[in-house]
Amino acid sequence: MKSLREYIEELRSLDQNNIGSWPTWAYGFAIILVCAVIIAIGTWYFVLPKQETLERVSAREPELKQTFESKQRLVANIDAYRTQLEAMELQFGALLQQLPSKTEVPSLLNDISQTRIASGLEEELFKPRPENPQDFYAILPNDLIVTGTYHELGHFVSGVAALSRIVTIENINIEPIEQGDESGELRMSMTVNTYRYLEDAGDTTQPAGSKAQ
């Protein structure tokens, strides 16, 4: 068996212009060395740069998996969501039909006045305030002061709530007409809000199948 020194001497004596004359062990060692260099270069230029990308993608794997599962659940329930959307559109259309148009607002105010009369109340003040436009409707506040008994006031509020159009009452204040008055007469001040559909809001604000009043 050759010593290490003998191997080194043979390496020094190898003819680089005649590789075929090299001994088998030297030829195999050269092939291994060349392969190692190629692998090292490939790793440095191709594998290592991708390693950082792989680590970033691996770090995002839980987040992406959670997003996928969430979207998968949405897809699985899409029919139920469509059914709910159709029901919401029908409900919205029904509510929209309770909003009068601009030409119908005076009739609604007259209905409120008739409800007051039917309840037996006396009117001290009725003062419309400027309307407050919203997305597809406008709020029309009206300052109203009426007088009557407790039961008459309750009958009026119930009657307003029973109207076919949407009417809300807020800022209610009830107090006796005069201190020490035993007649039971009360004064109720309030803001009565009526609503109307904004015809110029465009069809995009209406659900399918609904129609402006």
TrEMBL record:
It comes from the Bacteria. The chain crosses the membrane at residues 25-48. Pfam families: PilO. InterPro entries: PilO, Transl_elong_EF1B/ribsomal_bS6. Keywords: Coiled coil, Membrane, Transmembrane, Transmembrane helix. One of its GO terms (biological process) is type IV pilus assembly. Residues 71-98 form a coiled coil. The keyword Cytoplasm does not apply. The keyword Cell inner membrane does not apply. This is Type 4 fimbrial biosis protein PilO. The gene is pilO.
